[in-house]
Amino acid sequence: MTCSPVTQVGDHVRDNCGALFADAALGFVGVPFRLHGRSERTGFDCVGLVLASANAVGIRLNVPAGYSMRSAHPEYYARWFDQPELRRVLPHEQGQDGDIAIVRPSAQQLHFMIRAGGGFVHAHASLRRVVHMPAPSPWPVWRGYRLSPPD
User: Is the pTM of this model over 0.85?
Assistant: First the structure.
């Protein structure tokens, strides 16, 4: 499947890319958790889940290098999201399937989740697998991003 930015259905504009991205993320529920994991077979961390879901819809994202589960430098991650295939979503715009929520489980940790199916898909380190959990996020949302494929 490949993202197309939008389609018009009557008076409603549908974000196909976001919907397909969310569906791809939901398809990974149950995959094992693995720090720095990039393979559905061996496991994902939260970065790997975002990358694999984007790849599934034909979007290639650059991978951050040298990140850890604990980081006091959120701007490092913000720079990773500064690429043409992504756009920042302001708080009043957040909430669509396919939005990437960067949350703060603690002062020293950022975590990536994908909005999908009335909740969030994310690689849960404690549960050791990719899970779908209902909204709202139990953690504060620091920033949001949306796939923005080339036209």
Answer: yes
